Protein backbone atom coordinates (compact mmCIF):
# COMPACT_ATOMS: atom_id res chain seq x y z
CA UNK A 1 0.00 0.00 0.00
CA UNK A 2 2.77 2.38 0.97
CA UNK A 3 4.56 1.51 -2.27
CA UNK A 4 1.47 2.35 -4.31
CA UNK A 5 1.00 5.71 -2.56
CA UNK A 6 4.67 6.52 -3.05
CA UNK A 7 4.44 5.65 -6.72
CA UNK A 8 1.43 7.92 -7.14
CA UNK A 9 3.27 10.79 -5.42
CA UNK A 10 6.38 10.33 -7.57
CA UNK A 11 4.25 10.12 -10.73
CA UNK A 12 2.40 13.31 -9.78
CA UNK A 13 5.65 15.15 -9.15
CA UNK A 14 7.05 14.02 -12.50
CA UNK A 15 3.90 15.07 -14.35
CA UNK A 16 3.88 18.44 -12.64
CA UNK A 17 7.56 18.93 -13.43
CA UNK A 18 7.04 18.00 -17.07
CA UNK A 19 4.10 20.40 -17.45
CA UNK A 20 6.11 23.16 -15.81
CA UNK A 21 9.05 22.49 -18.11
CA UNK A 22 6.81 22.61 -21.20
CA UNK A 23 5.27 25.89 -20.06
CA UNK A 24 8.75 27.32 -19.53
CA UNK A 25 9.92 26.19 -22.97
CA UNK A 26 6.88 27.57 -24.77
CA UNK A 27 7.09 30.84 -22.89
CA UNK A 28 10.73 31.32 -23.83
CA UNK A 29 10.66 29.93 -27.35
CA UNK A 30 9.92 32.55 -30.01
CA UNK A 31 8.76 31.55 -33.48
CA UNK A 32 11.31 31.79 -36.28
CA UNK A 33 10.74 34.93 -38.36
CA UNK A 34 12.39 36.00 -41.62
CA UNK A 35 13.20 39.39 -43.15
CA UNK A 36 14.32 39.81 -46.76
CA UNK A 37 16.16 43.06 -47.46
CA UNK A 38 16.08 43.94 -51.16
CA UNK A 39 18.53 46.35 -52.77
CA UNK A 40 16.78 47.92 -55.83
CA UNK A 41 19.76 50.10 -56.77
CA UNK A 42 20.91 50.35 -60.37
CA UNK A 43 24.30 48.89 -59.42
CA UNK A 44 22.65 45.61 -58.38
CA UNK A 45 20.61 44.26 -61.32
CA UNK A 46 19.50 41.12 -59.54
CA UNK A 47 15.88 41.28 -60.63
CA UNK A 48 13.00 39.60 -58.83
CA UNK A 49 14.04 35.98 -59.30
CA UNK A 50 16.39 36.15 -56.34
CA UNK A 51 13.78 37.73 -54.04
CA UNK A 52 11.27 35.03 -54.90
CA UNK A 53 14.04 32.44 -54.46
CA UNK A 54 14.84 33.76 -50.98
CA UNK A 55 11.14 33.73 -50.05
CA UNK A 56 10.84 30.15 -51.26
CA UNK A 57 13.98 29.18 -49.33
CA UNK A 58 12.57 30.61 -46.11
CA UNK A 59 9.43 28.49 -46.51
CA UNK A 60 11.57 25.35 -46.30
CA UNK A 61 13.87 26.50 -43.49
CA UNK A 62 14.23 24.64 -40.19
CA UNK A 63 12.12 25.88 -37.32
CA UNK A 64 9.22 27.17 -39.43
CA UNK A 65 5.88 27.07 -37.62
CA UNK A 66 2.32 28.36 -37.93
CA UNK A 67 3.41 31.55 -36.13
CA UNK A 68 6.37 32.28 -38.44
CA UNK A 69 6.27 35.36 -40.67
CA UNK A 70 8.16 36.62 -43.71
CA UNK A 71 8.67 40.35 -44.24
CA UNK A 72 10.16 41.88 -47.40
CA UNK A 73 11.86 45.26 -46.92
CA UNK A 74 13.08 47.45 -49.78
CA UNK A 75 16.02 49.80 -49.31
CA UNK A 76 14.91 53.40 -49.39
CA UNK A 77 16.12 56.58 -51.09
CA UNK A 78 15.59 60.32 -50.73
CA UNK A 79 11.81 59.88 -50.94
CA UNK A 80 11.86 57.83 -47.71
CA UNK A 81 14.80 59.63 -46.03
CA UNK A 82 16.80 56.47 -46.86
CA UNK A 83 14.60 54.42 -44.54
CA UNK A 84 13.60 50.98 -45.88
CA UNK A 85 9.95 50.42 -46.61
CA UNK A 86 7.83 47.32 -46.35
CA UNK A 87 6.92 45.58 -49.58
CA UNK A 88 4.85 43.01 -47.73
CA UNK A 89 4.49 40.89 -44.61
CA UNK A 90 3.25 37.32 -44.88
CA UNK A 91 2.11 34.65 -42.48
CA UNK A 92 3.57 31.30 -43.39
CA UNK A 93 1.18 29.31 -45.60
CA UNK A 94 1.11 26.27 -43.34
CA UNK A 95 -1.99 24.54 -42.04
CA UNK A 96 -2.34 22.03 -39.24
CA UNK A 97 -5.69 20.75 -40.56
CA UNK A 98 -5.26 17.24 -41.88
CA UNK A 99 -8.28 17.46 -44.17
CA UNK A 100 -6.87 20.43 -46.09
CA UNK A 101 -3.73 18.47 -46.83
CA UNK A 102 -0.59 19.13 -48.78
CA UNK A 103 -2.33 20.54 -51.85
CA UNK A 104 -3.83 23.40 -49.86
CA UNK A 105 -0.41 24.26 -48.41
CA UNK A 106 1.11 24.23 -51.87
CA UNK A 107 -1.57 26.57 -53.23
CA UNK A 108 -0.98 29.00 -50.37
CA UNK A 109 2.77 28.96 -50.98
CA UNK A 110 2.37 29.58 -54.70
CA UNK A 111 -0.02 32.47 -54.00
CA UNK A 112 2.44 34.02 -51.55
CA UNK A 113 5.39 33.73 -53.95
CA UNK A 114 3.28 35.11 -56.79
CA UNK A 115 2.38 38.14 -54.67
CA UNK A 116 6.05 38.75 -53.81
CA UNK A 117 6.99 38.56 -57.49
CA UNK A 118 4.17 40.86 -58.60
CA UNK A 119 5.04 43.54 -56.04
CA UNK A 120 8.75 43.25 -56.78
CA UNK A 121 8.17 43.82 -60.50
CA UNK A 122 6.61 47.21 -59.75
CA UNK A 123 9.69 48.55 -57.95
CA UNK A 124 11.44 51.70 -59.09
CA UNK A 125 15.23 51.47 -59.35
CA UNK A 126 17.30 53.83 -57.18
CA UNK A 127 20.74 55.47 -57.20
CA UNK A 128 21.52 54.87 -53.53
CA UNK A 129 22.16 51.82 -51.36
CA UNK A 130 21.53 52.48 -47.65
CA UNK A 131 22.25 48.83 -46.88
CA UNK A 132 23.39 49.25 -43.28
CA UNK A 133 20.23 51.14 -42.34
CA UNK A 134 18.10 48.51 -44.07
CA UNK A 135 19.72 45.66 -42.15
CA UNK A 136 19.49 47.62 -38.91
CA UNK A 137 15.76 48.15 -39.34
CA UNK A 138 15.23 44.52 -40.33
CA UNK A 139 16.83 43.36 -37.07
CA UNK A 140 14.75 45.90 -35.12
CA UNK A 141 11.60 44.58 -36.79
CA UNK A 142 12.52 41.01 -35.83
CA UNK A 143 13.08 42.11 -32.23
CA UNK A 144 9.63 43.72 -32.22
CA UNK A 145 8.21 40.35 -33.33
CA UNK A 146 9.80 38.50 -30.43
CA UNK A 147 13.15 37.35 -31.81
CA UNK A 148 15.64 37.23 -28.94
CA UNK A 149 18.93 35.70 -27.87
CA UNK A 150 17.86 32.06 -28.19
CA UNK A 151 15.98 32.54 -31.48
CA UNK A 152 17.03 31.45 -34.94
CA UNK A 153 15.47 34.29 -36.88
CA UNK A 154 17.04 35.31 -40.17
CA UNK A 155 17.80 38.42 -42.21
CA UNK A 156 18.37 37.62 -45.89
CA UNK A 157 20.03 40.49 -47.76
CA UNK A 158 19.93 40.58 -51.58
CA UNK A 159 22.62 43.14 -52.42
CA UNK A 160 26.09 43.68 -53.89
CA UNK A 161 26.99 45.29 -50.50
CA UNK A 162 28.28 48.48 -52.13
CA UNK A 163 27.10 50.84 -49.38
CA UNK A 164 27.07 54.46 -50.55
CA UNK A 165 25.04 56.26 -47.86
CA UNK A 166 26.95 55.53 -44.62
CA UNK A 167 30.14 57.43 -45.46
CA UNK A 168 32.46 55.63 -42.97
CA UNK A 169 31.45 52.27 -44.47
CA UNK A 170 31.90 53.54 -48.03
CA UNK A 171 35.32 54.97 -47.15
CA UNK A 172 36.35 51.69 -45.55
CA UNK A 173 35.27 49.81 -48.67
CA UNK A 174 36.98 52.21 -51.08
CA UNK A 175 40.00 53.11 -48.92
CA UNK A 176 39.74 56.65 -50.27
CA UNK A 177 41.13 58.33 -47.13
CA UNK A 178 44.19 57.71 -45.01
CA UNK A 179 42.36 58.64 -41.82
CA UNK A 180 39.75 56.17 -40.61
CA UNK A 181 36.30 57.54 -39.86
CA UNK A 182 34.22 56.41 -36.91
CA UNK A 183 32.29 53.33 -37.98
CA UNK A 184 28.67 52.80 -36.90
CA UNK A 185 28.05 50.89 -33.70
CA UNK A 186 27.96 47.16 -34.57
CA UNK A 187 24.46 45.75 -34.90
CA UNK A 188 23.34 43.35 -32.18
CA UNK A 189 22.48 40.17 -34.10
CA UNK A 190 22.33 37.82 -31.12
CA UNK A 191 19.76 35.19 -32.11
CA UNK A 192 19.51 36.56 -35.66
CA UNK A 193 21.39 34.91 -38.52
CA UNK A 194 22.50 37.27 -41.29
CA UNK A 195 22.86 36.00 -44.85
CA UNK A 196 24.22 38.25 -47.60
CA UNK A 197 23.75 36.99 -51.15
CA UNK A 198 24.21 38.53 -54.56
CA UNK A 199 27.68 39.96 -53.98
CA UNK A 200 28.76 38.90 -57.46
CA UNK A 201 25.71 40.45 -59.15
CA UNK A 202 26.85 43.97 -59.91
CA UNK A 203 26.57 46.19 -62.98
CA UNK A 204 29.67 47.31 -64.86
CA UNK A 205 27.86 50.41 -66.11
CA UNK A 206 25.02 52.10 -64.30
CA UNK A 207 22.33 53.48 -66.56
CA UNK A 208 19.06 55.25 -65.82
CA UNK A 209 15.61 54.26 -67.04
CA UNK A 210 16.19 55.97 -70.39
CA UNK A 211 19.38 53.97 -71.01
CA UNK A 212 21.78 56.86 -70.39
CA UNK A 213 24.95 55.97 -68.50
CA UNK A 214 25.11 57.64 -65.10
CA UNK A 215 28.46 56.35 -63.85
CA UNK A 216 30.67 53.30 -63.80
CA UNK A 217 30.58 50.79 -60.96
CA UNK A 218 33.56 50.35 -58.68
CA UNK A 219 35.86 47.75 -60.29
CA UNK A 220 35.86 44.39 -58.57
CA UNK A 221 38.91 42.26 -57.82
CA UNK A 222 39.70 39.57 -55.21
CA UNK A 223 41.01 42.23 -52.84
CA UNK A 224 37.78 44.22 -52.92
CA UNK A 225 35.69 41.07 -52.44
CA UNK A 226 37.73 40.23 -49.34
CA UNK A 227 37.38 43.79 -48.07
CA UNK A 228 33.61 43.70 -48.53
CA UNK A 229 33.42 40.68 -46.26
CA UNK A 230 35.82 42.06 -43.67
CA UNK A 231 34.10 45.43 -43.40
CA UNK A 232 30.61 43.96 -43.10
CA UNK A 233 31.65 41.28 -40.60
CA UNK A 234 32.95 44.03 -38.31
CA UNK A 235 29.50 45.63 -38.30
CA UNK A 236 27.89 42.83 -36.25
CA UNK A 237 28.28 41.74 -32.64
CA UNK A 238 28.05 38.07 -33.69
CA UNK A 239 30.06 37.81 -36.92
CA UNK A 240 30.14 34.02 -36.59
CA UNK A 241 26.46 33.93 -37.59
CA UNK A 242 27.02 36.07 -40.70
CA UNK A 243 27.56 34.37 -44.05
CA UNK A 244 28.13 35.48 -47.63
CA UNK A 245 27.02 33.89 -50.91
CA UNK A 246 28.02 35.22 -54.35
CA UNK A 247 24.56 34.51 -55.76
CA UNK A 248 21.09 34.33 -54.28
CA UNK A 249 18.84 31.32 -54.82
CA UNK A 250 16.36 31.68 -57.66
CA UNK A 251 12.77 30.57 -57.87
CA UNK A 252 12.14 27.11 -59.31
**Could you tell me the number of beta strands?**
8
Tell me, what's the shape? globular
What average pLDDT do the residues reach?
83
Q: In order across it, which strands form the biggest sheet?
A: 3-2-1-4-5-8
- The fraction of residues assigned to DSSP E strands is 15-25%
Count of helical regions? 6
* Low-pLDDT segments: 14-28, 206-214
| Secondary-structure element order, N to C | HEHEEHHEHEEEHE
Give the distance, in angstroms, between the N- and C-terminal Cα atoms.
66 Å
| Percent helix | 25-40%
The Rg value, from CA coordinates, equals 23 Å
Structural class: alpha/beta
Characteristic key phrases:
globular, 6 helices, alpha/beta, 37% helix, 252 residues, six-stranded mixed sheet, two-stranded antiparallel ribbon
Give a quick precis of the structure.
The protein has 252 residues and is α/β, with parallel strands linked by helices.
Question: Could you explain the architecture of this structure?
Answer:
The radius of gyration is 23 Å and the shape is globular. It has a six-stranded mixed sheet with strand order 3-2-1-4-5-8, with helices on both faces. A two-stranded antiparallel sheet has the order 6-7. Residues 14-28 and 206-214 have low confidence and may be disordered. Strand 6 and strand 7 (213-216) form a beta hairpin. The protein has helices spanning 2-28, 49-59, 101-120, 131-144, 167-174, 222-233, and strands at 34-38, 69-74, 85-91, 153-158, 192-197, 205-207, 213-216, 242-245. The termini are far apart. With 252 residues, it is α/β, with parallel strands linked by helices. The longest helix is centred in the N-terminal third of the chain and has 27 residues, at 2-28.
